[in-house]
Amino acid sequence: MHMNIAVFSRTKEEAQAFLDKYSADLEAESPYTVFEEDEDEELDETTGKHGYWHNPDRIYDGYLIGGRWRGFLRLLPDRHGEYGERSWVNEGWADMPGRCDIARVRDCDFSIEAEEYDRALRFWDFAVEGKPQAEGEEPWAIYGTLEPQKYLDAYGTKETFAKCGAAFSTASFISADGEWHEQSHDELFPNEGYFSDRDIEYEQAFSNALEDAKARDLFITIADCHV
């Protein structure tokens, strides 16, 4: 499984270090690896003992900056950023103008995208208010029975739901102090479809981290992590 994560950092190099901190794909020389003695393993040349190196804080197998989410960041007019690497799934695709994977937070446009906001409003019409779907509209209820009251309990209003769903966010993020933050996937909604499993507390923490990064003139880096 792949997920996108945002990394907030003082420098681009620090973002790389934060990503390494939680990666299993590291060399023995990494400051995040430790040696585990095991007589069943091969002899390690570095230590002269049988065993293997591993990162005890690993969360993902490895990562690419950009990757499947190449161009995830939107730049403000006349601002600049950098691209990372491509994944095999988007190899050969043309880069989108005004997009990037690494930039200063102040140079990015994190405003709500009108198309996604309207899409969320329309989903609420269907899932909560019971309005029929139009012919040719995407089939939202394909995994099970929707429970309108759970949406009402979680979000309160249609507008709050739409803002949450359309706001800029990633599956997880690393804050500027190098700490990992992830959503609590407690299967809030049984259909596991569109807007099926949202963590309001996580979204607020992400929003706070974004505002803090903007105030401190930090960088944001988008990575594609395999878990």
Task: Explain the overall architecture.
It is a single chain. The protein is of the alpha+beta class and 227 residues long. It has five helices and eleven strands; from the N terminus they run E-H-E-E-E-E-E-E-E-H-H-H-E-E-H-E. The chain has helices spanning 12-21, 114-127, 148-155, 158-166, 200-215; strands at 2-9, 34-37, 51-54, 62-67, 73-74, 85-86, 99-100, 102-104, 172-174, 180-182, 219-226. Strands 1, 4, 6, 8, 9, 10 and 11 form a seven-stranded mixed beta sheet that branches. A two-stranded antiparallel sheet has the order 2-3. Mean pLDDT is 89; it is low at 187-193.
For the largest beta-sheet, the strand count, sense and barrel status come to: 7 strands, mixed
Low-confidence blocks of residues: 187-193
Structural class: alpha+beta
Order of helices and strands: EHEEEEEEEHHHEEHE
Overall pLDDT level: 89
Name the helicity range.
25-40%
Number of helical regions: 5
- Give the beta-strand count: 11
> In oligomeric terms, what are we looking at?
single chain
Query: What is the molecular shape?
Result: globular
CA-CA gap between termini: 5 Å
- Residue share in β-strands: 15-25%
Output the radius of gyration.
Answer: 21 Å
